[in-house]
Design a protein that fits this description.
The protein is globular, with a radius of gyration of 18 Å. By secondary structure, it is of the alpha/beta class. The chain is 20% helix and 23% strand. The two termini are 28 Å apart. It is built from 5 helices and 11 strands; from the N terminus they run H-H-E-E-E-E-E-E-E-E-H-E-E-H-H-E.
């Protein structure tokens, strides 16, 4: 999880200065930089238009008892809304690199790295944030309990940014008062800088979670896309029963 604040920036800066004094043998292994801006602008993976999905949301029917902040120390002004078999919010995107250790998601690349995710793959391994597009939801609290809205690990999510739609799953949980976070792979697919330390985007991301949906196995992105497209088509068509029906792919 990437929580930006001044103290963290100072800590990271001191670490960088400290490593410069190490002898060559003690220097940490070099980590490849994230893809250059523009190289990760993947094509949309759905035939459902982003504008159509956004238009269908309408006004916010708020279901959260309070509002969330996008980052620690920021105003709490993000409500969780509900419409036609889906739950949605509009926020920023911080980068979650937690879970299975990979070349781009590890303690060297992410100062907030954790080796676990709240939900696991079918083999019991933690999710791979570098490869799997997934969304982080706040842990249950007095503000909102995602479980009461028919959401669970593996629920299908449509993420929208800059005219693109990318499908993923609910894959991790985060702080109780903060919302707006997704995996390295989700950001990369949306054309957002996926660097867990410095990447993300400060606004303009819409997250639509289809209630009572579940991708199985959770690690199958192809299954998430297939089920997501079906539910998105029903959602845009105004089929509340179809979009909210319990579906497994």
């Amino acid at each position: 999880m990437c929580i930006r604040n001044t103290a963290l920036a100072l800590i990271v800066g001191s670490v960088v200065l400290g490593t410069a004094a190490l002898p060559a043998a003690a220097q940490p292994a070099k980590v490849p930089p994230p893809p250059a801006p523009g190289s990760y602008r993947a094509a949309p993976e759905t035939d459902v238009d982003a504008a159509a999905l956004l238009a269908q949301l309408g006004n916010c029917n708020q279901i959260s008892k309070g509002r969330y902040a996008t980052d620690r120390g920021r105003p709490a002004n993000i409500p969780v809304c509900e419409h036609s078999g889906a739950v949605f919010w509009k926020a920023d995107m911080d980068i979650d690199c937690d879970g299975r250790r990979t070349e781009r998601c590890n303690r060297d690349t992410d100062p907030s790295y954790l080796p676990t995710t709240s939900f696991t793959e079918s083999d019991g391994e933690y999710l791979n944030a570098e490869k799997l597009p997934f969304v982080v939801v706040p842990v249950p609290s007095r503000i909102w309990d995602y479980r009461s809205s028919g959401i669970r690990g593996g629920s299908v999510v449509a993420m929208i940014h800059d005219g693109k739609v990318v499908y993923g799953v609910v894959g991790d949980t985060g702080p109780s008062g903060i919302i707006g976070e997704a995996s390295y792979a989700a950001a990369q697919a949306l054309g957002i800088d996926p660097d867990p330390a410095t990447g993300g985007v400060s606004s303009g991301v819409t997250y639509i979670v289809f209630k009572d949906s579940k991708v199985s196995p959770i690690e199958s992105h192809a299954a998430a896309v297939e089920l997501g497209e079906e539910l998105a088509r029903r959602f845009v068509a105004g089929d509340a029963a179809g979009a909210g029906a319990a579906r497994t792919q």
